[in-house]
Design a protein that fits this description.
Family: Belongs to the 4-toluene sulfonate uptake permease (TSUP) (TC 2.A.102) family.
Membrane topology: Multi-pass membrane protein
Number of domains: 1
Order of helices and strands: HHHHHHHHEEHH
Subcellular location: Cell membrane; Membrane
Keywords: Cell membrane, Membrane, Transmembrane, Transmembrane helix
Structural class: mainly alpha
Pfam families: TauE (PF01925)
Number of strands: 2
Length: about 270
Amino acid sequence: MEIEWVLAFVSLGLFAGFMAGLLGIGGGGIMVPILTSIFLAQGIAPQYVVHLALGTSMTSIVMTSISSTRAHHARGGVLWPIVKAMAPGVVLGTFSATFLAARISSLYLAIFFALFMGYVALNMLRPKKAVIVQKKDISNTELLAVGGGIGAISALVSIGGGSLTVPYLNSRNIELKRAIGTSAAVGLPISAAGAIGYLINSQPQLELPFAVGMVYLPGVILISIASFLTAPLGAKLAHKLPVAILKKVFAVLLILLSVKMMLSVIYA
């Protein structure tokens, strides 16, 4: 691999890890659009770039998910009974959706990604309102079904599911800190099942050295190492920087990156 691509993957990992630590959001929202641009610049056919970006991003999230889960567990922030109830649905939904993603064109995947990230960004931009909680206990059946839906969407946009799991748990009368910690733990089976699914799926005629299925392994290694180094720094600075303002800037960045990715696929 040429040095410029090594630097590109490392820089992406450094930035994604820092933003994930700082804002609790990152992962696919940053990595998928930028990976799409990198793969296009490497000369990979446009019909494969989004699939490869999704798979590479999802696999890169595994190490971050492990680190985040351990940190929240150490602080008693994970409700493991909820994680265990959601896990089967999450794994099934995520794994199945990778097979769906393999059969959807890059354009439709890019459109779905852009629409979802637009939804995430708008939620970050609008003023927070008090959450109306439901007092009824959550059944395991509900958690199983919700987990399946969260897993499927997460696989199609390559995220750890936090933007869906946290609001859901918070709306079901779980305090925000524990909702975040539990969501981080749910993100581990999402990323693991998604990584396996993207590794065993493949695109016909995609000839790229060191690519397995829809995952570019050198990219995964470089991004994972770099993000592992900067995520703790972002988390540390979260208490010193104006996070509320940064979230608004990040939301605009998500929209711009998603639109750029969609246009890149359309006009490639």
